Amino acid sequence: MNKNHPERTTGTPVPKLLTVLTISVLVAGLNGCSFSPSINVLGSYFPAWIICCVAGIAVTAVAHYLFARWKLLDELWPLPILYPCLISFTACTLWLVFFR
Amino acid sequence: MNDKTTSHSRTLRGTIISSVIGAGALITAALTLYTVNSYPRTDDAEVVANIIGMAPLIAGPVVELPVHDNDFVKKGSLLYKIDDRPYLYALQDALAAQERLEGEIENETRRISSQVSSVDVANAGKQNALANETRADDEIKVSEAAIAQADASLKQSQADADYAVSNLHRIEPLLAKEFVTPDDVQRARSLAEAKTAAVEQARSALALAKGKLLSATAQKQQAIAQLSQADAQVKQSSQAVLVLAPLIAQRESRAAAVRLARYNYEQCSVVAPFDAIVTNLTISEGEYAKVGQQMFTLIDTRKWWVLANFRETQIKDLRVGTPANIFLMADLHTRLQGYVESVAYGVTPDPDVVGKLSQGLPDVQRTLNWVRLASRYPVRIRISNPPQQSLRIGEVAIVGMRPKS
Fold first, then answer.
1. Which residues are within 8 A (CB) of B101 and not within 5 positions of it... i.e. 6 or more apart?
2. Which of A45, B7, B296, B322 has the fewest CB atoms inside 10 Å of its own CB, making it the most exposed?
3. How far is the alpha carbon of A77 from chain B, nearest alpha carbon, in Å?
4. What mean pLDDT comes out for the span A62-68?
5. How sure is the predictor about B76, in pLDDT bands with cuts at 50, 70 and 90?
6. CATH class assigned to B40-50+298-401
7. Chain B CB within 8 Å of residue A38 CB
8. What is the ipTM of this complex?
């Protein structure tokens, strides 16, 4: 099924995903929510920026999976810089939204 | 193959997504850096409050200790009571001494008034002597007048006698020729004798008047002597009058002794000087409290601060009154509000850099770090809304500055 419809579907998911992300980030940012700058993980306190980095890496991993699935990997460039950029982008955005 | 893939892969869509990710990374990184620089934050912060050590001002065994360790006490409530009986007795003693002094002052006042009366008596004696002197003066004048009078009457009677005697001598030879009668001669003789006797009388009267003058003069000398004696008595008695000054001067000293005794007595019951938490209380009733020896500690719960260490580069952005968010490690879900109250002006210099601060010559290090670390200074952040009875000194806190709203 995936092989049959790639050309039709490739146009829609990326803008949709971007729209959803932008709106959710805006809404979260407008809420002005500010969590504590230290997170308790099973009795140990981790600074917020480590949590954001981990989340950034996780999001980037998911993005990589999605890029591969949508066959975007070949179109994106330059990948060695793009992925750190994506990690930094996600981590900084999360930090700015939730821990500022 | 490379040519193929690149020509195939570099589509407009891929370029847009890559650009969006790259630009987003740059923008958010810049925003993050700006935020972190403008609103510094630190994990190196601790909750502090002022503490005082409760030490007694007087010595004695503790008889009441109604507070317990970690109790919350209100301002004015009793913390401990030291056996107050010795201090009560001391106060009573001081009061009695004060009253005794008042009695002494009363006694002395009476004695002084009696001495003042004796001065009055001496003064009266002096007046008496003065009057005596005046009287003697008058008597002298009277005697002198009497002398003059007696002198005059002596002269008159002498003249009368002379006349009578010469008259007798004139008419006596005429008796033989019987020009006068014997009776005339007899009358003239007796007149002459009488006049002569009157002269003697006048002479003795003069002598008497002279004697009176002498006596009056003696009286005056006596009066003068009495006057000088009375003067001396007045001086003596007025110098013998005592003064109250030494006793009056003791009044303030006795009053001060009473005040001190009362103060000591009042210090037996010690109350909380402010709303506080009792801490480090490890004694019971019966403990012998020594002057100045700390018995327990009170934490002042009126004001709480967070001491947060900030790098010297961040301090320039911290103005007095800059608002701050405070999170306590113990309760990360509660956000406390605070504001910068002051920034410390000194920390101990790093001995690895400037060397040890010692006497003699400065001890300067010869090695030098290429990478220098910023000094950090404690910033005192006042907690605006401290939760009652849940803050603890030394609690770990996380502090982040926030924009002024």
1. B247, B250, B251, B254
2. B7
3. 7
4. 91
5. very high
6. mainly beta
7. yes
8. 0.74
CATH architecture for the domain at B60-87+260-296: Beta Barrel (2.40)
Task: Give backbone dihedrals phi and psi of B260, rounded to 5 degrees, phi first.
Answer: -65, -45
- What is chain B's length? 405
Query: B332 with A40: CB under 8 angstroms?
Result: yes
Q: Which fold has domain B89-249?
A: Four Helix Bundle (Hemerythrin (Met), subunit A) (1.20.120)
Q: Do A37 and B41 touch (CB under 8 A)?
A: yes
pLDDT digits (tens, 9 = 90+) for B120-138: 999 999 999 999 999 999 9
Cβ separation B22–A82 shorter than 8 A: yes
Please give the pLDDT value at position A26: 63
Non-local (6+) Cβ contacts of B175 within 8 A are B181, B182, B185
Q: Where are the domains of chain A?
A: 38-100
Helix, strand, coil percentages (3-state) for chain B, rounded to 5, are: 55, 20, 30
The verdict on a CB contact (< 8 Å) between B5 and A47 is no
The reply to whether domains B40-50+298-401 and B89-249 share a CATH topology is: no
- The model's pLDDT over B370-394, given as tens digits with 9 standing for 90+, comes to 888 889 999 999 999 898 778 999 9
Tell which of A71, A75, A95, A99 to mutate to test the B interface (max B CBs under 10 Å): A75
